[in-house]
UniProtKB/TrEMBL annotation:
Superkingdom as given in the UniProt entry: Bacteria
Alphabetical list of SUPFAM superfamilies matching this protein: Putative DNA-binding domain (SSF46955)
Membrane spanning stretches: none
Higher taxonomy: Bacteria, Pseudomonadati, Pseudomonadota, Gammaproteobacteria, Lysobacterales
Pfam families hit by this protein: Phage_AlpA
Official protein name in the record: Helix-turn-helix transcriptional regulator
InterPro entries: AlpA, DNA-bd_dom_put_sf, Prophage_regulatory_activator
Amino acid sequence: MTDSVRILRIHQVRERTGLSRSTIYELVAEGVLPPPVRIGRRTAGWVEAEISDFIRRRIAESRAVPGGAACVR
């Protein structure tokens, strides 16, 4: 059995979430989005499973709000 963890770089997180770079870092600062992990001296990335969980939570929150796609922070 392989236990693989995939790290996403900022461009991949932007692609997956549809958020801008500045919004991603703003949500990290607010504790809404998981923080990146350091993978090198000048390199960081996000754990794919954590980004997937964030997206699932956003979908669930969106569905729970009467009227649909309200922006929830």
